[in-house]
Design a protein that fits this description.
Two copies of one chain form a homodimer. By secondary structure, chain A is an alpha/beta fold. The first copy, chain A, is built from six helices and eleven strands. Chain A has one domain: Stationary-phase Survival Protein Sure Homolog, Chain: A (3-Layer(aba) Sandwich), CATH 3.40.1210. In chain A, the strands form two sheets. The first copy, chain A, has a nine-stranded mixed beta sheet with strand order 3-4-2-1-5-6-7-11-8, with helices on both faces. Chain A starts with 7 loop residues before the first strand and ends in a 7-residue tail after the last helix. Chains A and B meet through helix 2, helix 3, helix 4, strand 7 and strand 8 of A and helix 2, helix 3, helix 4, strand 7 and strand 8 of B.
Chain lengths: 259, 259
């Protein structure tokens, strides 16, 4: 009697291999399939879709236990995905999960996020991919309430697949007394950051600037990820990498660029 | 009699302040308006939408001549845009241009490109923004044939504006005997990179991996940027930052995620 083959699941993140969030995600995935972790050897938050082209990359195997392997990579989250596919698996995993990110990747944050860029790179490679984030920046964040939801979402993606070129951006509210109410399938809210820079002088009296800012949601839609999270739902946004604004094409065609 | 106010144009790139491409773009923009250059102090290719959050940033004024100012920044292209707005202009420029990039940012390259991420950050901030790239990686690339087109596109954007949340991804073919035929307004072609890694050992006998790859266009559409460039047209793709895949929303709603 043949045993059903367990799926191969690639796990990565942007907070680095030592972050509690990736340990939690790895444990959940080990209940579902064989797990390969390839994660940055240091925090890589805010790296967006950066890749390393001008430097060599290092890859180090740090753990093997049965069908569970763990590597660190000196590069960005997207480098981790590319190296895992090309040099470790030499093929595609059945599922790619990134996270659990310490902090939100909802709405516009998707564009700055190394975690979501890893999931997006998976989608570019044709791998069903999901990024998970918890709205809690603390290192002792409580991932427990999100675990059954993460498992269910991953199992559904393995079962039903995702459309070509699409990955999922999953954000999970922090439980503050109120329990998570469930899951909402959403669109990305229109929001931005009101940036600011803390300006100061280093010990050598040279000025420096340090990025800070306040998140500003400009979208009152009840079908957005921001609405869902505010009302204690997990938000699931299907995200793609076709940047084309099709409406604007016809407008620009009226300009006289070839005159 | 009041003189018509010249527009303020912010210029940046990802190849760094010393790249010939940004000098060419700066010269073209000085014919149109007052120019502020804020560019990375070193090459930042492939940085995608990375921002610097864990490190302080440095900003240095290196040139002032009338209504032309030039700064270097220690961060990424997106950092340059954020710092220019927050700490130099303390407001918004009338136009943001990034480039001229040494090498293509067509189709999927938009996601890895620091140049296009600078333009996208401009769009997030509500600034009419354009990224320009020439399909020539050489440092002695000939930007001359593209100059009248770049000027015309920038003038049109200043005149007509862009829809909210949209920037332009402009790619320019390298003239190989054949002249540029004109401008096509396009959608982003479906393409990817067949990645590979050169594997070798450093002088200390430790293995390293260096990213390389072959570009693979899978899109035969004649309305794509790849088609336009192949046929010696300049491609203009209007690009936005709403990643939502609206079609997939209804599909996932049928899953039993709340059961």
């Amino acid at each position: 009697m043949s045993k059903k083959k367990r799926p191969l699941i690639l796990v990565t993140n942007d907070d680095g291999v030592s972050a509690p969030g990736i340990s939690c995600l790895t444990d959940i995935m080990r209940e579902i399939g064989d797990v390969l972790v390839v994660a940055p050897d240091k925090p890589q938050s805010g790296m967006g879709h950066a890749i390393t082209v001008s430097q060599p990359l290092r890859l180090q195997r740090i753990h093997t236990h049965g069908n569970y392997r763990k590597y660190t990579c000196s590069g960005t989250p997207v480098d981790c995905v590319k190296l895992a596919i090309n040099k470790i698996i030499c093929g595609k995993p059945d599922l790619l999960v990134a996270g659990i990110n310490h902090g939100s990747n909802s709405s516009i944050n998707i564009i700055y996020s190394g975690t979501m860029s890893a999931a997006m790179e998976g989608a570019i490679e044709g791998i069903p991919s999901i990024g998970f984030s918890l709205l809690d920046y603390e290192s002792d964040a409580n991932f427990k309430p999100s675990e059954p939801y993460i498992k269910k979402i991953a199992e559904n993606v393995l079962k039903y697949g995702l459309s070509e070129g699409v990955c999922l951006n999953v954000n999970i509210p922090k439980e503050n007394g109120d329990k998570i109410k469930g899951v909402k399938i959403c669109r990305q809210a229109k929001a931005n950051w009101d940036d600011d820079y803390v300006e100061n002088y280093d010990p050598h009296k040279r000025p420096y600037y340090w990025l800070t800012g306040v998140f500003a949601n400009q979208d009152e839609g009840t079908d957005t990820d921001e609405w869902a999270l505010k009302h204690n739902y997990i938000s699931v946004v299907p995200a793609h990498f076709d940047f084309t604004d099709h409406q604007m094409i016809s407008l620009i065609k009226k300009w006289k660029l070839n005159a």
